[in-house]
Inverse folding.
DNA sequence: CCAATATATGATCATGTGTTCATGTATTTA
DNA sequence: TAAATACATGAACACATGATCATATATTGG
């Protein structure tokens, strides 16, 4: 059954009122994309580990790499993605760049996610 | 710089105390993986839309397909993933299968995510 | 029991992701 | 200012992901 068939379906066989209501209250396409993009960034074990340790203390790139047991390059690439999603912020101090969570929302998101996986 | 170099790094040039502390408080590997797996499931626009409309009302498969404008097969495949991550639950009533969010945590996660993207 | 209907699933394919390697850039210090 | 150090980035490759198509399964009504 294709999307076109569903359109027919909507008129002939299912629950058109529910569909209309769902559509009316749906997230705007752009918001759905951006929200998904944020969750997608959270959806990698390396990045989860990075964010979790950053929720405890500010760390420099090489510390993060050592803490999660991965190469500096890999960590740097991942930090780029985390920056792009505004999940981390950073400050340079000489040669060293210190990273931390962008705001408290991020830690709450992580905590809520942990809540979910622990719940059973 | 590789992971092995980081181990050296830890001894010679960086912040070994921070690294030890970060490691000590790190999420267990299995938790990090499971948490990331959950977020990864949330990290797709189609699934975000599905979850968002399901946060408002219980819907059958074909309704969901019509509401998000995709084929039944695609929606069914996605529902399988959402079930696997315990993000949705379902009940069968004759030929129709009704889906809804597995619990309120999911809606909170979505809301927290929206909070993040709206924050700027 | 057979046809119709709602949903589920396997295969396929184009596209996306994450790590590594090599190299580039910026800052400090000797 | 040259070497060293900390970090960033581009290319490449193996692997995962998501939509579609075809088909299977399950439930109901005739």
């Amino acid at each position: 059954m294709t999307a076109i068939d569903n359109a027919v379906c909507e008129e002939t066989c299912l629950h058109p009122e529910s569909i209309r209501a769902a559509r009316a209250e749906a997230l705007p396409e752009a918001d759905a994309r951006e929200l998904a993009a944020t969750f997608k960034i959270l959806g990698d074990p390396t990045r989860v580990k990075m964010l979790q340790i950053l929720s405890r203390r500010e760390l420099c790139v090489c510390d993060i790499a050592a803490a999660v047991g991965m190469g500096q390059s890999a960590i740097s690439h991942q930090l780029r993605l985390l920056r792009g999603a505004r999940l981390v912020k950073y400050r340079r101090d000489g040669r060293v760049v210190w990273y931390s969570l962008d705001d408290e929302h991020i830690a709450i998101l992580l905590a809520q996610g942990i809540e979910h996986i622990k719940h059973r």
Q: What stands out?
A: Residues 43-118 of chain A form a domain with the Arc Repressor Mutant, subunit A fold (CATH 1.10.10.10).
